[in-house]
Amino acid sequence: xxxxxxxxxxxxxxxxxxxxxxxxxxxxxxxxxxxxxxxxxxxxxxxxxxxxxxxxxxxxxxxxxxxxxxxxxxxxxxxxxxxxxxxxxxxxxxxxxxxxxxxxxxxxxxxxxxxxxxxxxxxxxxxxxxxxxxxxxxxxxxxxxxxxxxxxxxxxxxxxxxxxxxxxxxxxxxxxxxxxxxxxxxxxxxxxxxxxxxxxxxxxxxxxxxxxxxxxxxxxxxxxxxxxxxxxxxxxxxxxxxxxxxxxxxxxxxxxxxxxxxxxxxxxxxxxxxxxxxxxxxxxxxxxxxxxxxxxxxxxxxxxxxxxxxxxxxxxxxxxxxxxxxxxxxx
Length: 331
Description:
45% of the residues lie in helices and 1% in strands. By secondary structure, the protein is an all-alpha fold. This is Peroxidase.
């Protein structure tokens, strides 16, 4: 029942001020954020990314991975791009990121945007746009993304362990990592589909080949022939070798398609975290549905939606953060 007692002018004013304050400080990103300040921003990024991926198609997977690594650690604030200082090891120099490529790509795109619109486009937004364009240029979907992120000023390698799911994670651990970031089980299985492009080093999965249970054995869930192929590529004692690259998708590592789900369903997922998707009813059902799908339409639509959700994690907006002039350094 509504009260018939009118609100006092002072109370109305207080409520209005409270609403305005909460609205103005609420962090959010939006579609078309640069329409007025840098209207050609996304076109500039796509143009440059088209040239970059044409020069080296293998960069697509790494740039997609870069956004994931950035957003899960400290939020989508480009902290992954900051260089280490004498008294601090930054995220990019942490062991899980040692193999990450594409930092020079972000710098190259940033330089183009600085020419067109100095001090307007954040490095965090460039990561998101470069990841989206990498998917599109690898024959995947082109999905609209929200922008308006600002750049953080802190990056610590020590933040990775508690925030980044390792390739050895089981399904319980994976679901916990995603829940921690307000992402769903569906987001987990959809975003795992990013492994349809890209390459890995032996260190990320060698335990499955040579010491799965601590007894010098091979993971029995791995397809036997696939395991033997991996063993020929990765020797028992070269797990720290950063030169050997292995396709995450056996047949089409530079094409964004349904190949990943087909491989996982056949016991040919490269990581423990890939095989783990078969140990939950919801994720298993999605894997099997995509493995049998005649079209990638559902996956492509879901992937764009999950990437937009991931792109909101810990985003700095309004007056929080800054727009870096150089992506590797705070202003």
